[in-house]
Design brief:
Blueprint: H1 7-14, H2 18-44, E1 47-48, E2 53-55, E3 64-65, H3 66-79, H4 84-97, H5 136-151, H6 158-175, H7 192-209, H8 212-230, H9 243-257, H10 263-282, E4 283-284, E5 289-290, H11 308-317, H12 340-350, H13 356-363, E6 369-375, E7 385-392, E8 395-403, E9 420-425, E10 431-436, E11 442-448, E12 451-455, E13 465-470, E14 489-495, E15 501-506, E16 521-526, E17 537-544
Antiparallel strand pairs: 1-2, 2-3, 4-5, 6-7, 7-8, 8-9, 8-11, 9-10, 10-13, 11-12, 12-17, 13-16, 14-17, 15-16
Bound molecules: 2-acetamido-2-deoxy-beta-D-glucopyranose (10 copies).
Length: about 550
């Protein structure tokens, strides 16, 4: 076990009294049942019982979707009404039947993205990792099969169970072909969500099939993940509404299904507690958002895009208090609502691992505080990223210093890597946000009471800082030309930059460019003065008005 880092954390564990346990337990039951029901009601509308697949959630001319089908199948077993179990078995048979069976191909043991797709690897349908095939689907579908086999074996005929084990065996072999940096793959232990799933599936299948090599491989990979985590008790893929959710799901499998003889069984629960502790410290219940920085986010306001973490919060504090819209399927990135059955099935166990202090911070914002931590994603990070966040009741500022070999974070995606973020409460109850667009290899940050300072240590006179700023609330200004037009926040700017700035708009139907993660925004860009000397640096002093 890890040494406990701070005394308050140890104290909060002891503070977990019997009443707290009972209270949490009862609510988890009803909240998670409600999540299962709402998500299944929604997916029922997409189910194609002729084909035993879910139609694509994207309305792509009546094609189907493999991964959502499997998540739905897990939900069918959990619900188990009428012919639910029978339909789940039909889906599983379809998906395993179409699993890639040629051992010498890189995508061996993987699952189709959709059943209508051409054969991956033909002349007309070239293999393209993360496009025509997605290596992470082995983990997503494999872990779902394990949950089905662990939780509902009584509903799955013996021959189908064996078929699923064969499928899991192949998917584990195929997953072992993945080596970060080889064949365009990026699976390093620091790529937290799929790496945690990989270690688990390998360890679980190895034990189930008596394949000691597979068991050993799972343990060895788990050790690398754990060593990286223990450096500062953080996930490498730090603080992401979507992927912290996946990592917590996968760590729950470590904790729940792995024996004490496994490193995963030993460390899973502890890693969940630490991960929730840091998420709880960064959460602002008034804004219903986890403060930045976000390593990989699919939106800028958790109230408006659907994050997997919000589904876990739903099972902890109920839908009303979670960052989820009344109609979750209308939010940005809504297709992830399809993972709800897995979150619901595991909630009764997972939720016992959420520290009481975290649970209480999901209900109410405690008091103004600062969070200091770090995360490390080798080989992309040259040094660990240093994270600082300042949280007050109506304003949060969070940023990370980094020095990397790539632009846009380890996922090389500037749209999802948000290294410096400000969020604030607006009078109408909505949330204002701004995020520094990630355009550089290295960033230094300074964050504190009411300010954010960012600088480019490797920058020069042609550097730019672009702050993407969310649009106004329903009754607010439609046009923004200066900081004075930004709703609910007063901003003073200083630094080595040219203080004349440009404002442009990226909208759904036009403007200078396209929306990012479904969000429209105003782009405030600062350049350097003519012949500007010194390190490019800009400081924002902000105040909620
Ligand atoms: C929790 O459930 C138990 C057993 O079902 C019941 O006795 C108890 O009163 C419930 N407690 C709360 C706080 O709802
Ligand atoms: C499997 O793929 C290899 C490499 O493309 C190919 O040579 C072989 O014929 C394939 N095997 C089958 C059974 O299709
Ligand atoms: C597993 O892979 C083998 C080839 O190694 C193949 O013959 C078999 O059909 C595969 N099983 C499934 C369920 O895809
Ligand atoms: C694995 O080994 C155990 C203990 O020897 C045995 O009971 C079980 O049948 C074996 N399972 C398989 C799939 O070989
Ligand atoms: C495990 O690996 C060793 C060494 O590569 C090999 O000799 C052995 O056959 C493997 N065992 C299994 C069950 O695959
Ligand atoms: C966080 O780090 C900053 C800068 O290193 C330091 O000034 C501050 O006191 C630290 N805060 C906490 C709560 O540790
Ligand atoms: C983060 O802080 C550590 C310890 O002070 C330092 O070694 C490291 O270089 C810092 N990382 C960055 C990216 O500045
Ligand atoms: C600034 O740095 C960029 C990226 O390293 C480089 O392409 C550019 O030429 C530099 N500009 C000046 C004026 O030095
Ligand atoms: C923001 O505007 C600047 C200056 O026009 C531009 O270089 C940058 O690409 C824009 N950023 C985004 C995300 O559109
Ligand atoms: C901005 O500057 C003005 C004038 O110096 C000052 O009155 C105001 O308090 C400052 N606001 C912030 C948010 O720093």
């Amino acid at each position: 076990m890890f040494a406990l880092k701070t005394t308050w954390f140890a104290l909060s564990l002891f503070a977990q009294n019997a009443f707290g346990e009972i209270y949490r337990h009862n609510h988890t039951q009803s909240y998670s049942a409600n999540l299962l029901q709402e998500s299944m009601d929604w997916m029922d509308m997409y189910y194609d019982s002729d084909r035993a697949y879910l139609f694509s959630l994207d309305a792509t001319a009546l094609t189907h979707d493999t991964r959502a089908s499997v998540w739905y199948a897990a939900g069918l077993l959990a619900r188990n009404e009428n012919d639910d179990a029978e339909q789940a078995v039909r889906i599983v048979r379809n998906v395993v039947g179409a699993q890639f069976k040629n051992e010498s191909l890189q995508w061996f043991g993987n699952y189709q993205i959709y059943p209508e797709e051409p054969t991956v690897g033909t002349k007309q349908y070239q293999p393209s990792i993360y496009n025509t095939w997605d290596p992470n689907w082995r983990g997503f579908i494999g872990t779902t099969f394990v949950v089905m086999l662990e939780e509902f074996p009584h509903l799955i005929p013996e021959d189908i169970q064996e078929y699923m084990i064969e499928s899991l065996f192949n998917t584990t072999i195929g997953d072992s072909y993945r080596v970060g940096g080889v064949d365009d793959d990026n699976l390093y232990p620091a790529y937290s969500n799929p790496s945690i799933m990989r270690a688990f599936v390998s360890g679980w299948v190895g034990r189930r099939t008596n394949d000691s090599n597979m068991t050993t491989a799972g343990e060895a990979y788990a050790k690398e993940i754990i060593d990286l985590f223990k450096r500062d008790n953080t996930l490498s893929e730090f603080n992401s509404g979507t992927y912290a959710g996946v990592s917590l799901f996968a760590l729950t499998l470590w904790a729940k299904y792995m024996p004490e003889t496994s490193l995963m069984g030993q460390y899973g629960a502890e890693m969940i507690r630490y991960t929730w502790t840091s998420l709880g410290e960064l959460y602002n219940a008034n804004l219903r958002n986890v403060a930045g920085p976000w390593d990989r986010a699919y939106g800028f306001d958790m109230n408006r895009y659907l994050s997997i973490l919000a589904l876990q919060m739903w099972t902890l504090v109920g839908k009303e208090k979670a960052p989820v819209n009344a109609k979750p399927y209308l939010m940005g990135h809504k297709n992830d609502f399809a993972i709800s059955p897995l979150i619901s099935i595991l909630a009764p166990y997972h939720n016992t691992l959420v520290p009481p202090t975290t649970l209480s911070s999901l209900h109410a914002f405690p008091e103004t505080h600062t969070v200091n931590t770090s995360a490390f994603s080798p080989p992309y990070d040259i040094y660990p990223r240093n994270i600082t966040a300042w949280l007050s009741p109506d304003l949060t500022i969070g940023a990370e210093s980094f020095s990397e070999t790539v632009v846009g974070g380890p996922a090389k995606n500037p749209s999802s890597f948000n290294p410096a973020v400000i969020q604030w409460a607006r009078k109408d109850g909505s949330v204002g946000w701004m995020s520094l667009y990630a355009q550089v290899y290295a960033l230094d940050v300074d964050v504190g009471d009411g300010y954010l300072e960012v600088s480019y240590p490797q920058g020069n006179s042609s550097s730019h800082f672009s702050f993407l700023v969310g649009t106004s609330g329903w009754g607010g200004k439609r046009d923004v030309a200066s900081w004075a037009d930004v709703e609910g926040l007063r901003v003073n700017v200083s630094g080595t930059v040219d203080l004349e700035y440009e404002v442009s708009f990226n909208g759904l139907r036009g403007g200078k460019g396209k929306v990012v993660n479904d969000f429209e925004f105003w782009n405030f860009t600062y350049g350097m003065p003519e012949g500007g000397m010194g390190v490019p640096r800009v400081r924002l002093e902000v105040e909620v008005v």
